[in-house]
Every structure is written in structure tokens, then in C-alpha cells.
Amino acid sequence: MSVSAVDAKTLCLFDVDGTLTAARQKATPEMEEFLQRLRQKVKVGVVGGSDLEKIKEQLGENVVDKVEYVFAENGLVAYKDGKLLSVQNIQAHLGEDLLQEFINYCLNYMAQIKLPRKRGTFIEFRNGMLNVSPVGRNCSQEERMEFFELDKQKHIREKFVSALQKEFAGRGLVFSIGGQISFDVFPEGWDKRYCLGILEKDAFEKIHFFGDKTKPGGNDYEIYTDSRTIGHEVTSPEDTSGYVKSSSSTDQLKTLLLLGLLLIISQLRCLLL
């Protein structure tokens, strides 16, 4: 295989927020170009907790055609080569009684929180999860950053999740803090590792995962530490592209050195004969 050939047995799988884009922002032209160049070397996929529409807002309306795999809502909505593979449904899995009990508890809890500002859409219902935001997902970018900085000091989301873990212990729910203003709630096993089960039938030899929320409690932690992936922690979109380019250059150098070594060995054998 030549150095420039596509390695169909290797997948580079990227988180979206904080990895390919700034939180809830559009990908830069440089990032889009980077992904297309990477596709000339390996298979490429993205996995995010957001629904498909939000991923489209960030990575482009035709995102399912820009990369080989798109896993929205942690893979509960899955696309391969531009075609829908599968969709899962949280209400059918958990049941209406548990859902209403959980939603009512969250609304009551948030009613007791005093914040500089509150906006709309405090609980967003998705196919594979619930997204809970104390400030409300309708906040502006400025209000988002205001809450994010306050959350760093007051640990608002962390305390909220701790209360939920205590209240709903043993009920099969998992809580994952990600992004800047919210946290996700989903059934056990429905974190970002869910997409790995879908990928198993494609028999990749290597799956490199890139994410920024890789510490315990972050929404990249489970897939980052999973034995089926090679995890890479990044801090920003710029860090992501720089990291991959550096790794790719190193791999190519190793390949060239190996080819050179094999050539030298072959020549030595000829001399000895």
C-alpha cells in the first residue's frame, strides 16, 4: 500500500463541541478542509450528544455526505455514507411514568436556583436523551458564557447532577456534563460508546477517538477510556487539527523509514549472495 492510499481499516472519530468547533459554533473553513484531507487517508466520523439538526448547524447541512459516519445523540441516530442506519427512542425504553417523574423533579429543582438570567428550553427532549439546562438553551452567546463562568465557580451543574444521582439511584439513568450550559441524561449504555456497537460490524482495526471532555463525568469519558478506541484528549478545534496532522506526519515518517530499512536489507542480501 502506498503512503497516500486510504486506510479503510482505520477510523478517526471526532466529538463535535470543543473538538471540531467552538461550543455551538460553526466549523471554520480550515476545519472543513482538514476533514476532507483526512478522508483521503482514513475513514472519518463524528459523534455528538446533540441532535442531527444542531450538528448540521455546526458542520453543514450536508454533513452526512461530508464524512463516512455521523452519530447524532451519541449514535442513537446513526448515518453511514449519507444513509440513515438506525434510530432509537428514549420514551419507549424508559416509559412515560419515569420520564414524567424525572422531568417534574428537574423543573422543581431549577425553580429553586437563582441565576443572573434564565431563558427558555430548560429541558430538551431528544430521541436518545434528555438535555437539561439550568439557564435555558435559548440563551444568547453572551449569556451562555456568563453562565459558563458562573458554573466554573459555583458548580451548578455538578450539584444538580449529584442531586439527581441520589434521587434516581438504581433507576437506570446516567448523567453526563458536557458543553457549557447543560448536561445529558440517558439510559445506561446510551453514552457515546453506543456508536461503537454500530461500528463493530465494519471491523475497523483501529478507532481513534478525539474529544475534549475526557475526565470522569465528562461526556467523552466513557468512549475515551473504552478498550475499543485509542483515546486522544484535545483542548480546542485548533489543537485537534494540529494533533492529527502531527500524528499523521509521524506515521508517514515511520512508514518511509521502514521502507528504507527494508530496501537496505534487500541490498545487503544481494551483496552477501
UniProtKB/TrEMBL annotation:
Give an example GO cellular component term for this record.
cytosol
Question: Where does the record say this protein resides?
Answer: Cytoplasm
Q: Which residues hold Mg(2+)?
A: D15, D17, D212, Y224, D226, T229
Q: Does the keyword Kinase apply?
A: no
Q: Tell me which UniProt keywords the record has, alphabetically.
A: Cytoplasm, Isomerase, Magnesium, Metal-binding
Enzymatic reactions? alpha-D-mannose 1-phosphate = D-mannose 6-phosphate
Organism of origin is: Erpetoichthys calabaricus (Rope fish)
Q: In which pathway does it act?
A: Nucleotide-sugar biosynthesis; GDP-alpha-D-mannose biosynthesis; alpha-D-mannose 1-phosphate from D-fructose 6-phosphate: step 2/2
Could you identify this protein by its name? Phosphomannomutase
Annotated family: Belongs to the eukaryotic PMM family.
BP-aspect Gene Ontology terms: GDP-mannose biosynthetic process from mannose; protein N-linked glycosylation
Give the enzyme class.
isomerase
Q: Where is the signal peptide?
A: none
CDD domains named in the record: HAD_PMM
Q: Where does alpha-D-mannose 1-phosphate bind?
A: R24, R126, R137, R144, S182, D184
Q: Which cofactor does it need?
A: Mg(2+)
Assembly, in brief, is:
Homodimer.
Does the keyword field hold Isomerase?
Answer: yes
Its encoding gene is what? PMM2
Q: What does this protein do?
A: Involved in the synthesis of the GDP-mannose and dolichol-phosphate-mannose required for a number of critical mannosyl transfer reactions.
